[in-house]
Amino acid sequence: MMAFQVQQLNVGGYDHNFSYLVVADNGDAALVDPTGDCEKIRRAVEAAGPLTPRYILLTHGHQDHSECLGEVCSFFPAGIASHPNHPLSGRIKLHDGMRLPFGGGWIEAIAMPGHTRDSIAFRLSDDSALFTGDTLFVDCIGFCRSKDMFDTITKKLLPLPDGLVVYSGHDYGSVPFRTLGEEKKFNPYLNCPTLEAFRQQLRHLE
Length: 206
Ligand SMILES: [Fe+2]
Fold this sequence. Notes:
β1 and β2 (17-24) form a beta hairpin. This protein is α/β, with parallel strands linked by helices. The strands form two sheets. The protein has a six-stranded mixed sheet, covered by helices on one side. A six-stranded mixed sheet has the order 7-8-9-10-11-12. It is globular. 21% of the residues lie in helices and 30% in strands. The structure holds fe (ii) ion (FE2). Residues 60, 62, 115, 134, 142 line the site of fe (ii) ion.
């Protein structure tokens, strides 16, 4: 049974951004949205011991999620994986449902249009974690096109297992991370029965 460890890195950046280091028990490693304090990312990678850099995963094209990309490539030489429409579209072009081999398991790319057209969430194969970028935060969601986001929430997010820990792109909630099951319960944007109700709820998004 493979295991993954996730480090949530409070990297500051544009607005309380998070980057993530994911390490599998065979040493395979991935970075999610390297940005903000590049030194902090470097220290985390070095402290994690001998790693095999496999992927740099980008959740969407907004610049505040990839400020350290150039720098991390010098100490974490890995394939950059993003949606084909991502402005920095990497060597690995992700499509919905694509599974990247990782540590005896995989990382699945799930297309989640709404915040942007190139938004992707990443799910670990042991169902321990879901990296949501600016699609889903603790307690709220990202600015979005309402129809696309409502479809993403109802067709893509809500069917996912409750036990996934949601790791988002910014520290905007009451806690830095929470399970998807708790988001389904407490996040008002995940509790709208109709598109109209969702649009009403969106008026509360600052
Ligand atoms: Fe964004």
